[in-house]
Amino acid sequence: MQRHWWQEAVVYQVYPRSFQDSNGDGIGDLQGIIQHLDYIKNLGATVIWLNPIYASPNDDNGYDISDYRKIMTDFGTMEDFDQLLTLAHEKGLKIMMDLVVNHTSDEHHWFMESRKSKKNKYRDYYFWRDSKNGNPPNNWKSNFSGSAWQFDETTGQYYLHLFSKKQPDLNWDNSLVRQEVFDLMKFWLDKGVDGFRMDVINLISKKQGLPDDPNASKTAVEDAMSWVANGPKVHDYLQEMNQKVLSKYNVITVGETPSASTQDAIKYTGFDRHELEMVFQFEHMGLDWSQSGLGKWSTNKVSLIELKGVMSRWQTALNGKAWNSLYWNNHDQPRIVSRFGNDSSKYRVLSAKMLGLLLHFMQGTPYIYQGEEIGMTNVHFDNIADYKDLETLNAYHEIVEDKKQISAQQMMAYIHHSSRDNARTPMQWDATKNAGFTDGNPWIKVNPAYKQINVSEALNDPNSIYYFYKKMNELRSQYDVIVYGNYSLLDPKDNEAFAYERQLDQQHLFIVTNFTSHVIKRNYKVYNDQKSRLLLSNYDDDLKRDLRPYEAKVYYYEE
Ligand code: NOJ
Questions:
Q1: NCBIfam families from the xrefs (predicted)?
Q2: In the structure, how many helices (H) and strands (E) does the chain have?
Q3: How much distance in Å is there from the Cα of 149 to the middle of ligand 1?
Q4: Residue from 49, 58, 163, 281 whose mutation best tests the ligand 1 pocket (most atoms within 8 A of CB)
Q5: Dist CA 142 CA 539 (whole Å)
């Protein structure tokens, strides 16, 4: 297998709005990130992924971009960005930008021009269609509730928006659009950024003729993405992007690809395909979704057997052909310790370490989302007005108020479990007011758990989750097998323990985790092997066959 720096990398994701406010306006900013570069460096991360920091009216917290070459005023200036990039590079940290080019903001000048008249030179940058018998042009749904089409008075046509109506979809079939995107990518790469995380990049090529989705009435919004994802020309466009831009720089790329199968991922990231380096797949994130049509809105618990099935399928299908990203958390997902682990005071630390270990010893590039390294938990606001995320608010409005499908109380339980705002409450730095995030009024309330769960506590406790993650990152740089080894699952039907092996030449790893809050007894071959030694564990000692609540261990041996 060819080796590349981005395979050995550890990515730390910063959601700038919620990371650190430096000027008291209640919103995180670039100077705030600068204050914590050493914190990220000391954790052992090597790349920082910044969620969008471009000019934006913030309908979707920066995923609606009005100028790709300007910095959002809330976050600072281009000078602040240049300073951040220089300082990060001086410390050996790379910067990966978010590239949001499936859609722009409706306040981007291309769209403002486009909507003016049918003859405008930017008209064809977007999808404009006539109504069909008084209805929208087709039955596609927006990811953020309602139809994916918005009627526009000026020209009497509808435009397509797979996300909010302030996020019109760009028409990638227009070569001028592609050229604009390639130019703006070069603008950032020439500044010295080290790569891109590409927002919903597998939605950029729409099916010819924009046909109705035959399953639209049956599916939840998220499932409806499968009809619009992985369109007919997506690989042509990514290969063109690679040839014209990416191949000229030595960068990291990761495409966000809802509804991508392992076969799709091999096409996007195959070592010989010249498209992307890796994708964010969603299968493991959909395992606790509702079976009754409400998609992500549920309080279901994940089934360990299903989780093993999905993770292992991705591990083995891509091995030797393409490359995995490894993630539990990001700005769209609830906190993993509350979701797959146990966030009670008794088990939070143990289960957070267990989940971290389970993921980081798989094959792929690991992503750590801000706060994951201190075991931040989901937030439970009682009042819907305390939520800021438009997906959450639109869903509440549609499911509870419009369609009256479930009670407000039930929906709040789902929101507590699944809302994106679980990830977006401010970073918890210390136990002072607003968790040390801001001197002002935070744009979203701080999770009250900050008094116990914060960076300052973690740094003072040698047994903290933070130091456990740091240790994992150190081991990654010492053992090639962690990065490059192949993967095999043990006991797929065991619904309490998740165990797997990794192997690279003579190097072997054996990983076992107890997914329950009770002691389980398991006997593994490795226990009888004189040569094996414990590399990492979330307990102080090793009882071998007795696996204590959420116990997680890695053994190493050579053979
Ligand atoms: C995926 C991003 O991660 C999410 O936060 C955003 O709302 C949508 N894409 C639309 O850009």
A1: PRK10933.1
A2: 18, 20
A3: 18
A4: 163
A5: 46
Q: Tell me: the pLDDT tens digits for 463-489? A: 999 999 999 999 999 999 999 999 999
| 427 in Cβ contact with 20 (< 8 Å) | yes
Note whether 341 and 347 are within 8 A (CB).
yes
Spell out the CATH class of 109-160.
alpha beta
What mean pLDDT is predicted for residues 286-296? 91
What global pTM score does this model have? 0.98
- Output the CA 433–ligand 1 centroid distance in Å: 30
* Ligand 1 atom closest to Cα of residue 64: 11
Helix axes 234-244, 262-269, angle to 10 degrees: 30
Which of 3.20.20.80, 3.30.1360.120, 3.30.70.100, 3.40.1190.20 is the CATH number of 5-106+170-468? Answer: 3.20.20.80
- What CATH fold (topology level) applies to the domain 486-558? Immunoglobulin-like (2.60.40)
Give pLDDT tens digits for 122-169. Answer: 999 999 999 999 999 999 999 998 999 999 999 999 999 999 999 999
What are the CA-CA distances from residue 384 to residues 72, 79, 81, 381, 409 (Å)? 27, 38, 34, 7, 10
Active site residues: 199, 256
Dist CA 287 CA 302 (whole Å): 6
What percentage of the chain carries pLDDT values higher than 70? 99
The rounded Å distance from CA 256 to ligand 1 centre is 9
pLDDT category of residue 219 using cuts at 50, 70 and 90: low
Reference 375, options 331, 329, 419, 421; nearest CA is: 329
The minimum-distance atom of ligand 1 relative to the CA of 103 is: 11
